[in-house]
Amino acid sequence: MPVKSTSNFTLILLIVMVALTWGIAATAYFGIVDYKAVMGWKEMGPVETRSSKAVPDSDPENPPQAKENEKPGLNKEKAKEPISHDSVKEPDKKKVEPIEKETEKKTQENKKEKVKKKPNPFTSKEDKPILNELKSGDKLLKKGKAKEAELHFRKLIKSNPSSPRARFGLAEALNALSQQLKSNSVLQECIKAYGEVVQIPGCPQALKKQSLLTKSDRETFLGQLSSSLKTLAFLAREMPNDVEVLNKLGVGYLMINKNSKAKQIYETVLQIDPDNGFALTHLGFIVKNEGDWVKGADLLGRGVGSLAEGTQSGKFYFHLGDALHRTNRTKEAEEVYARGAEKGLFRSKYQRSLYNVDRLQSRPFWTPKEAGASEYVRKLEQNWKMIRDEALKVMDVEKGLFLEEEEGLKNTGNWRQFTLFAKGDKTAECNRVPKTCALIDKMPNAKGCRRGQIKYSVMMPGTHVWPHTGPTNCRLRMHLGLVIPKTGDGARLRCADEYRTWEEGKVLIFDDSYEHEVWQNAESFRLILIVDVWHPDITDHEKRTLSAI
């Protein structure tokens, strides 16, 4: 019996141990048993889980007060009990984060509300009741339905004659329609409508500015330069500190050759905005052409360097380089020309003409055959003495007929010209050299070259002509030597990096869109006939339609 009792006790003990072992293992692996209770830690007090009743977060300004029967010191047993870290409730992050996100969301919404509430500078109080109708008209314009948009805005104006935006919408519709129909009469209606916008009481300043700037632009398109200038001048009086308006007014003056007026405008702009790149380049252009190369180079350099809109033009790089060259800053000039070529403003650092047809082949010097001018060259060379004698007769009797070169290309000396044809038209001077002009009349690509000239050129000893380029690549220039002095250091021409001299009775052909320079250091005058001809790659259509230069 004792043995059996002992066996039973051993069996029971074994079962208990297995049960305990399984419980601990199950807790560790599955988390389904309270291992603290099993291991004897239950006396530390109950642990509140996430599913327990939530405890309010502590208020730092008003900490929670203990109940009367739980004041410190009344329950000595509880005071002695150790406090479990698990019994201290941490702030519920899942509840805090949504509150923070909600606050941030409301802040963003408030910002959006503020943006939405910002008034539209183009909209007046008269426009607000019909905003949806105005937007409908704008949508028609965006879809290219100019005629429908015109009718829509006309109908809107009938019921809302005091709406500046409706009138502006009509002007915009007419502008689009004039382009679609290629109609100048519709464009005139458009110009009138833009002018009517600003006459409506309460027209917002932003809408007034946009209307008049567009009106001026359309007037310029029609060649109404005087009207365009008046429009800009009116707007400048309305907005005397608006540099955009003033800059455009300056351009308006330049377009009608009132450079001194433009100069005043750009000086005003620079008083308002000293770093205005547009004003710097345009004022630099004016000052440089007045002969102040140092100041011109400084202003042009600052303006071009600003990279502001309207400053990256071949014209400004052209004149900046020229001003630098004339102030003996040759290396800087070459860098400017190279940079212009890299930007695509010039065809190359040497070929810097600004009115070009891109597909044309080019080289500094040409043969008569390459130029397609063999017959012209033959006639000129056969008649060179007659051409020379008529020129000398004019020089001897009335030297005043040879006029000073007027493009500011001469550095030193005396250089005069006697023009027979210009922009494809014969001049009155042909009456003084009738045989020469009769010969030219038989050369249609010469007399009809609307981008060229035909003229005598006389250059006195000690003359130097600055490096320069012609305005276009659409022509080639022929020089017929008439009186070529042999004494002294002679006369020579550089085109790009190649040098040539003239011969009496011989024609020299070069492309004057390349940089060229002349020295006349002989002991007597040099006389030549200059004959421009169309480039051989120019088509008959282009000869008729290209603008004259």
From TrEMBL:
It comes from Phallusia mammillata. Residues 381-536 form the Aspartyl/asparaginy/proline hydroxylase domain. GO terms for molecular function: peptidyl-aspartic acid 3-dioxygenase activity. GO terms for cellular component: endoplasmic reticulum. PANTHER family: ASPARTYL BETA-HYDROXYLASE, ISOFORM L (PTHR12366:SF29), ASPARTYL/ASPARAGINYL BETA-HYDROXYLASE (PTHR12366). Residues 67-112 have a biased composition (Basic and acidic residues). TPR repeats lie at residues 243-276. This is Aspartyl/asparaginyl beta-hydroxylase-like. Residues 49-130 are annotated as: Disordered. InterPro entries: Asp/Arg/Pro-Hydrxlase, ASPH, IPNS-like_sf, TPR-like_helical_dom_sf, TPR_rpt. Signal peptide: none annotated. The lineage of its organism: Eukaryota, Metazoa, Chordata, Tunicata, Ascidiacea. The keyword Manganese does not apply. The keyword Ion transport does not apply. Keywords: TPR repeat. Pfam families: Asp_Arg_Hydrox, TPR_16, TPR_8.
